[in-house]
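Thanks for the sequence, V.! I ran NADP-dependent oxidoreductase domain-containing protein right away. Repeating your input here for the record:
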Amino acid sequence: MTDTDKLELSEKPITNRRTFLKTIAGVGLLSATPQSLLSSDTDDLLLKKFSDTGERLPVIGMGTWITFNVGNNIQTRNQRTQVLGTFFKLGGGLVDSSPMYGSAEEVLGYALDRLGRPQPSLFSATKVWTPFSRRGEWQIEESHKLWGLQQFDLYQIHNLVAWEHHLQTLQQHKHEGTIRYIGVTTSHGRRHQELEQIIQTQPIDFVQLTYNILDREVERRLLPAAIEKGVAVIANRPFQGGDLFFKLAHKPLPNWAGDIDCENWAGFFLKFVVSHHAITCAIPATSQVKHMIENMGALRGKLPDSKTRKRMVDYV
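Predicted structure:
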């Protein structure tokens, strides 16, 4: 039996310490597990409500940009399957991808097949990415095939490309039931003025944008607008594409990080992001199981209050 086979999902994600310990021990990961996951003050996953129906999402999701663009290499695909399996096992839900991400959607479909369908906690999120409306229809159809899904939980317009045309298309698919929620995305601080206008005037359910402990411009206008309009927010680049780890390499994790159940920088950065009232979910990307375990540590324990958030910003 391979490690990937061992990571097949049970009906429910892990929500208590005992089951978590058994799972990671079974795949040889116990020694790599941060202590915060072994001794969290709470067994509950951190979830946030994002719709009028009361539906909730785990605050830590998963991105696939670069990390799942691995082509046809079976060994690498199986390793990414293990990463995805670990994500689900530790309580993850939202998985985000795009046609822009090369083979990522195809690799996700492969991994979902290997892990076994259906995955009850999966909240599937992808995007349309083309300036041409007809090609957008083709992309939507192709994404359904690649993921192996009849219905997507969330379909987004990538980087606002031709958003006026694609929004009408997505609304039709939502009406037909092949899409549950609609959103738009941006990253790297681009097109914020236009994004704010869309939040204020268009019938969208989600917005995706860049937010991390150093890139906080969205706190001024975009996040308040999302709160006002009841739009859920997905935070991309919560690690600034990995740069935060390099920028803080010279600093030790502060001792008081333990007060919010953080024993690594990944948890520190992620808990800052998801503790903002407007943020529904953060989507860090990784290609390594050990890093996924660190990321998912932020799904449990305490979140920083406003005073601690300021202290975190001042420290970095």
